[in-house]
């Protein structure tokens, strides 16, 4: 029995630090009918999951017509859509207001991610 308790305690000790520090995520605040959201969907969304940026900050979409998720209560989604907010450990690290087009999106995102200490690896 003591062995099981010790094993459980060790498991908890290793799990707690990982649970306390969440990875960054890229939150996209959007609305149905948003022309710039549709453009992002056409130009970036199909490839984003395959990028280094996605490994550092997976994309999470939030519809502004619905309720704001509880874990984002401290994040102001703004009024413009899309608005991209990099969130880490429950706080905003940086944001991109609007969709600047595929030529600028990754450069702006990389600048934000580098400020988190989670810069995407480049080959």
The CATH topology is given as: Glutaredoxin
Largest sheet: 4 strands, mixed
Portion of residues within helices: 40-55%
- Which homologous superfamily in CATH is the superfamily? Glutaredoxin
Q: Tell me, briefly, the overall form.
A: globular
Mean pLDDT: 83
Residue windows where pLDDT falls under 50 for at least 5 positions = 2-21
Count of domains: 1
Please state the second-level CATH architecture.
3-Layer(aba) Sandwich
SS-based class: alpha+beta
In what order do the strands lie side by side in the largest sheet? 2-1-3-4
N- to C-terminal distance:
50 Å
Question: What's the Cα radius of gyration?
Answer: 18 Å
InterPro entries: Thioredoxin-like_sf
Protein name: Thioredoxin-like protein
Keywords: Signal
Structural write-up:
The chain is of the alpha+beta class. The chain has one domain (22-115): Glutaredoxin (3-Layer(aba) Sandwich). It is built from 5 helices and 4 strands. Strands 2-1-3-4 form a 4-stranded mixed β-sheet, with helices on one face. The chain is globular and about 35 Å long. It starts with a helix and ends in an 8-residue tail after the last helix.
Considering the chains and any ligands shown, give keywords for the structure:
123 residues, alpha+beta, Glutaredoxin, 5 helices, globular, disordered N terminus, signal, Thioredoxin-like protein, Thioredoxin-like_sf
């Amino acid at each position: 029995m003591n062995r099981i308790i010790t094993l459980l305690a060790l498991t908890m000790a290793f799990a707690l630090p990982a649970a306390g520090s969440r990875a960054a995520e890229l939150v996209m605040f959007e609305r149905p009918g948003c022309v710039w959201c549709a453009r992002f969907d056409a130009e970036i969304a199909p490839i984003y999951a395959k990028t280094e940026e996605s490994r550092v900050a997976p994309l999470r979409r939030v519809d502004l017509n619905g309720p704001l998720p509880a874990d984002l209560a401290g994040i102001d989604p703004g009024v413009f859509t899309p608005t991209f907010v990099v969130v880490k450990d429950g706080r905003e690290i940086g944001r991109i207001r609007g969709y600047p087009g595929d030529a600028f999106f990754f450069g702006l995102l990389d600048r934000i991610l580098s400020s988190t200490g989670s810069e995407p690896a480049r080959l």
